């Protein structure tokens, strides 16, 4: 009987080793490509979709423009990143709307890191 258990365990062990399923580490696939970020292709579209309805001429008080390249570049050098990340002691932006996605925030940060390509 002992010999039968030994053989059975050996068969199970060999079977398990031969049929081992390798499961990849669950890393989410990201659609957030920030390899190349320019104002014209990504940043302007993001600003138009999330910011310029309030941050264009005559809309916000105090007026903080976000409707053109120079304005967005200037604001990015200041508080903009902290506001869109909704960090403590900064006005959470976009105000009255959902927080920008991590990808959108990363896109703006990458644009800044790349030295603001147009």
Structure description:
This protein is mainly α. 46% of the residues lie in helices and 0% in strands. It starts with a helix and ends in a 5-residue tail after the last helix.
Keywords:
118 residues, 0% strand, 46% helix, single chain, mainly alpha, elongated
Query: How would the global form be characterised?
Result: elongated
Give the number of helices.
Answer: 5
Sheet bearing the most strands, described?
A: none
DSSP, total strands: 0
Distance between the termini: 79 Å
Question: Uncertain segments of ≥5 residues (pLDDT<50)?
Answer: 19-27
Q: Roughly what is the average pLDDT, rounded to an integer?
A: 83
Quote the beta fraction.
under 5%
List the secondary-structure elements in sequence, H or E.
Answer: HHHHH
Question: Rounded to an integer, what's the Rg over CA atoms?
Answer: 26 Å
Structural class: mainly alpha
The percent range for helix content is 40-55%
């Amino acid at each position: 009987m002992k010999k039968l258990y030994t053989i059975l365990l050996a068969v199970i062990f060999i079977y398990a080793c031969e049929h081992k399923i390798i499961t990849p580490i669950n890393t989410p696939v990201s659609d957030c490509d920030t390899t190349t970020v320019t104002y014209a292709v990504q940043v302007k579209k993001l600003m138009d979709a999330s910011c310029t309805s309030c941050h264009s001429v005559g809309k916000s008080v105090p007026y903080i423009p976000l409707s053109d390249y120079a304005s967005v570049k200037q604001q990015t050098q200041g508080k903009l990143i902290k506001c869109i990340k909704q960090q403590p002691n900064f006005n959470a932006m976009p105000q009255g709307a959902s927080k920008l996605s991590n990808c959108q925030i990363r896109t703006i940060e990458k644009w800044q890191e790349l030295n603001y390509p147009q």
